[in-house]
Amino acid sequence: MSVRQILTIGDPVLRQRAREVTPEELRSPEVQRLIDDMIETKRAANGAGLAANQVGETLRIAIAEVEGTNPRYPYKPPIPLCVMVNPVIEPVDQELVEINEGCLSVSDLRGYLERHLSVRVRYLDRDGVEHDEIKRGLTAGTFQHEVDHLDGVLFVDRAHPRTLSSWEHFDRHQRAEFEARAREIVARSGS
């Protein structure tokens, strides 16, 4: 396993829709190594997730994981490691929640955007096993964020422009309010 470079906003690969992975590709040592590298890269960067195009591969593979207290996202509930291959996401209902997000590919920027509170996620895991799950709350937001990456969409495309701020100003002026709101979302949705 190795830590890969994370592409940043402006790199055209981040704006490409990633292509589906075939069963043969998924079984290949190259794709399995990519998945291992993505996990290592996400963990080294303290991210909540990572999509393959963030490390320069236009394959529909994303991971989500929040271990214990993540220093970037201490308000997020734990998410066990989830490798998603060819994920499809759809809202369970029309309820939206405003979330403040950041991104490893947009290193010093955060902003508020609306996400569906509950989503259905269908995907294959790294072994090709099908999953069909409901994700709620901040966890649902994380899954939506990662699938957006696979469609060439960054959080800044969905963020309310006047809410964008640096991490420093988020910490100074918005963190306490948002963390209180995040705790309410987690209490209401269970994740």
Please tell me about this protein's structure.
The chain contains five helices and seven strands. By secondary structure, the protein is of the alpha+beta class. It is globular, with a radius of gyration of 16 Å. Strands 1-2-3-6-7 form a five-stranded antiparallel sheet, sandwiched between helices. A two-stranded antiparallel sheet has the order 4-5. The chain has a single domain (12-189), classed as Peptide deformylase (Peptide Deformylase, Alpha-Beta Complex).
Major sheet description: 5 strands, antiparallel
Assign an overall shape.
globular
Order of helices and strands: HHEEEEEEEHHH
Structural domain count: 1
The count of β-strands is 7
CATH superfamily, by name, is Peptide deformylase
Q: What structural class is derived from the secondary structure elements?
A: alpha+beta
Distance between the termini: 30 Å
Give the uncertain stretches in residue-range form: none
Radius of gyration: 16 Å
Helix percent band: 25-40%
CATH topology term:
Peptide Deformylase
CATH architecture: Alpha-Beta Complex
Report the β-strand fraction as a percent range.
25-35%
Strand order of the largest sheet: 1-2-3-6-7
Helical run tally: 5
Name the CATH class. Alpha Beta
How are the elements arranged and paired?
Blueprint: H1 23-27, H2 29-44, E1 49-51, E2 61-66, E3 79-91, E4 96-103, E5 106-116, E6 118-124, E7 130-136, H3 137-150, H4 155-158, H5 167-189
Antiparallel strand pairs: 1-2, 2-3, 3-6, 4-5, 6-7
